[in-house]
Design a protein that fits this description.
423 residues; alpha/beta; 19 helices; flat
Length: 423
């Protein structure tokens, strides 16, 4: 079957068109599904490789480029499409839909991974902040710098041996089946492949292997060997990069980041109002744009929370943010489910601190918290709990004249007040 490939100028035209739609290059599901093609074909299109003529035309038309002829590399002779041996496994990567903002974060991550050749990078932040979406966009944009790209989700809490087996089989030329079942042999085997190839591996939802009811970053019983994997990937010299996304960083990874610049941790915060506004428009809001900054502050720029509240505002307030704000309260809505999952993970002391901060309302100092928390607790224990809450992105720190004050995001405060019956 005859094929076409895009010219450099043609790819620039398509790139402008997809940005107008808010689409990613290869992660937006609507693009390749509507074009009746595959994600792999869309990736070959972006690399300037030959793809089937019909798929080429549909890819252009779906993104809004009707004159597909100007996209074609006219100097290339039509030839049969070549299907390269796949060296990418996106099978467990999610569809992130439209993606807005995070320009500075992407620049930082690319510098760490491409320029500084970091071995281990983590993206952390509270639920809905956009960790997985950012990791997907990052992987899409830097994939050509790697020989292999593998995405795996830890949503079902697989044993580390299962993950190692899957990774080694993808990376081994013969898809080797005679694998050791000892973690102390499997990790060096994987590291050997990471030395001989430039590999990008993404492990998503790492929080599922971390313990509940304790301070942040401790492994669940039976999952401690993930710590061995992460430590060796961070410490041993190789040519690859492992990216982790999680609600909180594994404690030994955070410690590694303190020791070497080849291990980096990025904690995501909310979107600025300029980027948050794009989400609100996408969800159909168009009224009271002068009030959008207040709405964004109430929900701390959390993309998921903004999407959920935009739907509520559209359905119950006729799309008017001003009417919604006139209620003078914060609606938890479906974001409460995400907050509930995170609240269930924290220790009892962390819960007590959050209850105190929610009750007080105003930012509190360490001395103020120590005065109202359970008697008999040392300040060092309170500091450890505050550090844990900070790693979970559940509190905010406010520098004052001579001290640091601690407080909760508005929507988190409302949720905790609701739990304590004081909302």
């Amino acid at each position: 079957m005859l094929s076409l490939k895009a010219s450099v100028r043609g790819l620039e035209i398509v790139d402008r068109a997809r940005k107008k739609k808010g689409w990613t290059k290869t992660v937006t599901l609507d693009w390749w599904v509507t074009a009746l093609t595959s994600q792999a074909t869309l990736r070959r299109f972006w690399r300037g490789q030959p793809i089937q003529r019909e798929s080429f035309i549909k890819i252009c038309e779906v993104v809004g480029v009707s004159n597909w002829q100007e996209i074609v590399d006219s100097s290339a002779v039509e030839e049969p499409e070549v299907h390269p041996i796949p060296r990418q496994d996106w099978s467990e990567a999610p569809d992130v839909g439209n993606f807005y903002g995070r320009t500075e974060e992407l620049v930082t991550l690319k510098q760490w991974i491409i320029s500084q050749r970091c071995r281990l990078v983590t993206l952390s932040g509270m639920g809905g902040i956009g960790k997985t979406a950012l990791a997907a966009i990052l992987a899409e944009e830097i994939q050509d710098d790697f020989d292999y790209l593998i995405w795996r989700s830890l949503r079902t809490s697989p044993p580390v041996e299962e993950i190692l087996t899957a990774l080694i089989r993808v990376l081994s030329p013969q898809q080797e089946t005679d694998l050791p079942n000892n973690i102390d042999q499997m990790v060096p085997r994987l590291i050997d492949y990471l030395k001989h190839h430039r590999c990008l591996i993404v492990l998503d939802e790492v929080e599922t292997i971390l313990d509940r009811g304790k301070l942040a970053g401790q492994y669940r019983s039976g999952y401690e060997d993930y710590g061995k994997l992460f430590r060796q990937v961070g410490e041993v010299k190789h040519n690859s990069c492992l990216v982790l996304t999680s609600w909180e960083n594994p404690k030994n990874v955070a410690a590694l980041a303190e020791k070497t610049h080849l291990v980096r941790c990025l904690q995501l915060t909310g979107l600025p109002v300029e980027e948050a506004s794009k989400i609100l428009r996408e969800k159909g809001l168009s009224k009271d744009e002068n009030k959008w900054e207040t709405l964004n502050q109430l929900y701390s720029g959390n993309p998921l929370a903004l999407k959920m509240m935009a739907t509520t505002i559209k359905e119950f307030f006729n799309g008017s943010v001003a009417q919604f704000l006139e209620m003078g309260t914060i609606v938890i809505g479906d974001i409460g489910e995400v907050l509930s999952q995170q609240f269930e993970r924290i220790s009892e002391l962390e819960k007590q601190l959050m209850y105190r901060m929610a009750t007080c309302g105003d930012p509190m100092s360490l001395n103020q918290l120590a005065a109202v928390i359970l008697p008999g607790l040392s300040k060092s224990e309170i500091i450890e709990a505050l550090e844990s809450l900070n790693r979970r992105s559940l509190i905010e720190k406010i520098p004052a004249d001579s001290q640091v004050l601690f407080t909760l995001q508005p929507v988190v405060r409302k949720y905790v007040q609701k739990l304590s019956g004081k909302a």
